[in-house]
Amino acid sequence: MLRVHIALGDRIGEESQRLIRSGRLVPDELVNELIQERLQEPDTQTGIILDGYPRTTNQAEVLLGFLPVYGFRPAVVHLMVDYEIIVARLSGRRQCPVCGTLYSLTTKPPKNAGICDLDRTPLVTREDDRESVIRERLEQYEVQTRPVLDFFRKSSVPMVEVGAANAEPRDISLQILGELSAAGIIPNVDFSCVEQQRV
Hints:
Blueprint: H1 2-8, H2 11-21, H3 28-39, H4 57-66, E1 76-80, H5 83-91, E2 93-95, E3 102-104, H6 131-154, E4 159-163, H7 169-182
Helix pairs in contact: 1-2, 3-4, 5-6
């Protein structure tokens, strides 16, 4: 959502881009407002996945306060990965600035180094995928976001914790879906169609 505002170049986008470039988090009030606005869109009626939110206990408290209004039952998925692996994976991502396709230098490289397979555009490193920015975000995670996990552990929100450092994406997905199904968050379905993909 923040990237949409950044692309639009509006007030929210300009402020968000300045903060993201410096590795800092966007203020809670602004992010909470964006989430509430987004939840009012028609395509959210059957469910949502929030990635990167909530990042603070304030955001978590606000989220649990307004989710019932929209009829959602929350669950937390915590992917546990060593920080050095995170830095290596994120700093190795490249994106096509035209079509938005993501590549990984180690797990999904382009056919021709530095060039998008689809439209032959030179690939770029996103601002928030620079190593210095990633390490700043990890430092902020320890201070601000780790307490969010403790907050949810003390609440009645179901939590799925997955050791994701060396597991295959399909196995991670199956574990998450299985535990969410067992907790009654999603219906029991055949998960054999989950595809293998890693970026």
